[in-house]
Design the sequence.
């Protein structure tokens, strides 16, 4: 009980917080699942897997790296052992897949050292992947426009007209 300045006793009732609306992700996956966290993956990475030349394991490695990448200026650095435990493939296979991703220009390994000079897990720079996805994005935008045109009234004529226009004229629309 709180006492007001008048000397009278007042009853203080705790205010209820408004119920937090259920997140769409909670509705889809359930709160028990979502309480363990989530990872932001641009859909274009999944849609462009074949175009990027990624096999399923390479995509899985990239998804695992992305799960550790929460801030643009802090590159992920999971150990090969952690990736091995999550993916169920040997640390040597992890190394090979990362080397393939590096050769493709999608990932860059950056060696990290402890203050005493000992090795730490590598840091993984995904800027190559980001740049490749940025280059692919306009192609997917164009494919979406063509797909919409093809499924609308007079579709084939619209598709031909869209393809015949120079790129600059299409952007002005």
Sequence:
């Amino acid at each position: 009980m709180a006492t007001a300045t008048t000397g009278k006793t007042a009853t203080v009732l705790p205010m209820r917080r408004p119920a937090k609306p259920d997140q769409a992700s909670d509705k889809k996956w359930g709160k028990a699942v979502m309480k363990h966290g989530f990872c932001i993956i641009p859909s274009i990475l999944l849609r462009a897997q074949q175009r990027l030349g990624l096999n399923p394991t390479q995509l899985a490695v990239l998804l695992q790296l992305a799960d550790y990448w929460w801030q643009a200026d802090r590159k992920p650095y999971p150990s090969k052992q952690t990736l091995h435990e999550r993916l169920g493939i040997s640390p040597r296979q992890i190394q090979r897949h990362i080397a393939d991703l590096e050769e493709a220009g999608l990932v860059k390994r950056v060696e990290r050292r402890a203050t005493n000079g000992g090795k730490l897990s590598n840091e993984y720079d995904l800027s190559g992947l980001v740049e490749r996805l940025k280059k692919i994005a306009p192609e997917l935008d164009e494919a979406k426009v063509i797909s919409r045109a093809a499924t609308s009234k007079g579709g084939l004529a619209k598709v031909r007209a869209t393809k015949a226009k120079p790129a600059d004229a299409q952007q002005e629309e």
The first strand starts at residue 2 and ends at 3. The longest helix spans residues 127-151. Residues 40-128 form a domain with the Arc Repressor Mutant, subunit A fold (CATH 1.10.10.10). Strands lie at 2-3, 9-10, 108-110, 123-125.
